[in-house]
């Protein structure tokens, strides 16, 4: 990641004071879908045609991974994460997927321990955080509770869903200054 946390923070403070506004068109998929924090991270997701006033009263957000697409084979989740950045510390990601049946492929959620495993979809040291049935119903919820990158992927078919199905993405939670 190049930047240390301190650098990131400084960059963020500078950006926040310069901009003071946020981007919209995120598919948070929750009742609080009108998120208007001062969010800006890594230069991603900025949409200058979409200015909202600062709202400092909102807490952590809950968002459905993939939005209305949920968690399935053949969708570019890296792109989804890119378009929906930034994500903040204590935000919740919701993975929704059908349980195994005769006409659905099973999915799951794994966390890679490092960037190399993530890039190679190497599941050897990855940790399963949700099995094939846990995405059913309201989905599997995961809180971004660390200040380090999270490397998510589907662990099915020995990495094929990760490699060929687009079912992988990285999230670096940012610090939210105000609630
Ligand atoms: C910015 O948001 C507006 C309104 O939601 C949308 O029409 C436009 O396509 C977006 N632009 C980019 C570059 O995402
Ligand atoms: C900010 O968000 C909170 C929680 O969603 C909402 O109750 C409040 O009306 C919003 N304030 C403004 C100024 O939009
Ligand atoms: C997914 O989207 C990213 C960013 O837009 C792009 O770099 C990547 O090549 C895409 N991956 C696939 C498998 O299409
Ligand atoms: C994150 O959530 C935990 C548990 O709800 C809470 O104790 C903690 O203060 C929160 N941290 C931040 C930085 O919001
Ligand atoms: C699924 O397939 C099995 C074996 O082919 C069959 O016995 C079962 O009835 C099927 N279940 C459904 C819900 O179609
Ligand atoms: C998945 O995990 C849930 C909750 O821990 C458990 O009840 C269920 O039996 C597991 N399912 C499979 C297929 O392992
Ligand atoms: Cu999968």
Automatic annotation (TrEMBL):
Chain segments annotated as coiled-coil in the UniProt record: none
Xref: PROSITE patterns: PHYTOCYANIN
Domain of life: Eukaryota
Residue intervals of the Phytocyanin domain: 61-175
Classification via Pfam families: Cu_bind_like
GO molecular function, one term: electron transfer activity
Record key words, sorted: Signal
InterPro entries (UniProt xref): Cupredoxin, Phytocyanin_dom
Signal peptide: 1-24
PANTHER family the UniProt entry points to: GLYCINE-RICH PROTEIN-LIKE, OS06G0216700 PROTEIN
Name the record gives this protein: Armadillo repeat-containing protein 6-like
């Amino acid at each position: 990641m190049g930047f240390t946390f301190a650098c990131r923070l400084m960059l963020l403070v500078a950006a926040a004071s310069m901009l003071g506004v946020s981007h919209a068109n995120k598919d948070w998929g929750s009742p609080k879908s009108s998120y208007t924090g001062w969010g800006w991270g890594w230069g991603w997701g900025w949409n200058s045609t979409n200015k909202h006033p600062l709202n400092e009263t909102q807490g952590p957000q809950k968002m459905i991974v993939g939005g209305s697409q949920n968690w399935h084979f053949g969708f570019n989740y890296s792109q989804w994460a890119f378009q929906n950045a930034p994500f903040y510390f204590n935000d919740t990601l919701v993975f929704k997927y059908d349980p195994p049946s005769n006409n659905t492929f099973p999915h799951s959620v794994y966390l890679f321990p490092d960037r190399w495993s993530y890039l190679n979809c190497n599941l050897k040291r990855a940790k399963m955080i949700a099995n094939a049935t846990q995405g059913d119903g309201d989905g599997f919820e995961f809180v971004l509770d660390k200040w380090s990158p999270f490397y998510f992927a589907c662990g099915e078919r020995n990495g094929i869903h990760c490699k060929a199905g687009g079912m992988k993405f990285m999230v670096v939670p940012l610090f939210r200054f105000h609630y």
